[in-house]
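Notes from the 1:1 (GR / supervisor)

We went over the backlog. Supervisor wanted to see one worked example end to end before approving the batch request, so GR pasted a single chain during the call. The sequence is below; no edits were made to it. Supervisor asked that the structure be written out right there so they could see what the output format looks like.
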Amino acid sequence: MADGLYCGRDGGARLTFVVHRAERADVLSDVLADLLAAPVADAFVPEVVAVHSRGVERWLAHRLSARLGVEAGRADGICANLEFPFPGRMVQSAIAAATGIDPTTDPWRPERLAWSLLDVVEANLDEQWLYVLVGHLGAGDPNDAKRDRRFAAVRHIAELYDHYSVHRPSMIMAWVTGDDTDGDGIRLPDDARWQAELWRRLRQAVDTPSPAERAVAGCKALVDNPALSDLPARFSLFGLTRLPASYLDVLRALSEHRDVHLLALQPSPATWGIDDHDAVRHPLLRAWGRDSFEMQVILNRRLAGAPGAEDVHHPMREPDRPTLLHRLQAAIRSDAPLPNADARPLLELGDRSVQIHACHGRSRQAEVVRDAITHLFAADASLEPRDVVVLCPDIDEMAPLLRAAFDDDPTSNRRIPYRLADRSLRQTNPVLGAVAELIALVDARLTASQVLAFAGLPPVCRRFGFDDKDLERIADWVEATGTRWGLDAAHRLPYDLASVDAGTWDAGLQRLLLGVAMSEDDERLVGGVLPFDDVDSGDIDLVGRFAEFIGRLGESVRALTDPRTVVAWASAIDAAADLLVDTRADDAWQRTQLDRLLSEVQDEAGTSGRQPLRLAEMRDLLADRLRGQPTRAEFRSGDLTM
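Structure output shown during the call:
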């Protein structure tokens, strides 16, 4: 790369903007440790190291603790007075301090912007320029099933506008002036021009400068008054593989009065400085290195020729005896093309650095992973569980299978301690899981299996006092009474079976309750209903609790059927939770988390949440809030991380 990244205003004191490049994160961590080992003027000011995930934070803190101690050798396990913000949050906080707009209440945050955008879309459905979106939403027919995806589509557009502000600020600035181009002077296609017009209508409705607009003024303010930001005189960004252009502008402004160190993961020094991605030869580098390639293009194009910058490559040490994994990594670093079959090097017989296991299902994959890790521990006594990470495409789906494979007797010498990370809230919070299942049941047929599965959820069992024997007994009653699906005959109306009451939960409960009231010897019909004769005197309490459960479930399902505003939805969900779930005193945080989630949704909607939402739209909204969230708690805790 050309010598020079942005690093100080002309004629002023020169500070640094250094790009440190390496192919491995452990090399970058050593570079960072050397940087932090040099003391700053005020030892009480915390060092700031921006990282892109909580897992990297935990890993990096462990690595630094072996280098930044106080005893001889500095390996006494001390890593203190460091802050690890996300890069985006750090940049946004700096701009917020310069512009006076609080990020937590910023109307341009996607989760807030979606509600304003929903109002704008609804107000312009009859406009010809919006025909593409109108067709996607099926707005011409209020009964069209496409209307169910209205909020999901609007939320997606809000996220796109946020991405445009971060990655394509020049395009947003062109839209501000009424120029429907991509920011480089190229006009938008006809079927995409509605995005620019919709953004302008949204800008008028929000009546607050967008992030792209206020970034220019914010950067100027940071240069003129460095005290606006509370960042220290030296800060670093670790392990980045992507860097939006708008973030780089803010970092340039901050580097006027601070030392900025950008520690970037760059898989191939051979491609550093290449602007044409098609020129990359190695297929894995071309497929997996796109983010880092785009980052280097941004750095080259926007910062080349700036005075006083440094670009430092930190090479990794080559192994004495290269394995297949080492050869593959070397080929990526050098961007070597794939060799011909005759030119491939021979591998050592014991080389198992790369293994591919063909498994006939996910459960078998979990078993094979367990066996493979067990073999690794047996072959290397220095290897510990905390050194192993298992990556899954969907941890929520794999979690039960991994538990089945890894759960052993705690006293067994085969036991491998492990933790599951990044699980969705509905999996880690049983109350949220129960509420999500309830919302899924609202427009379901309420089959016997669905209702019994819901009754077996821990918060529901606690509310109605069900235990495993109770659930088995209830399942026997459901089968014996012929209960199949539907609350009652009216609940079957959408299926054109409103005249058929047989097999509904109402019909089954009538038989059970009559069985409690009638003698076993009296088998006559009561109001056309045959009492169920397999109800013992000891079952009376259970029948009452089961009837109460079905009654409350039916009440909640009916209350959550019709469209309503987000405030009304939050109230209805809260009331349904009161009816159907309960927790122990030690688990009260679960219900508190539900209340906080509903409160946050209402707060985000604000005065813009007046549009009625359908059930499917509310389900999409909650699903977005209940998805997996990275946390630092489950990473590098001493156990194997999945």
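Supervisor's comment: Residues 194 and 481 are 57 Å apart (CA to CA).
Batch request approved.
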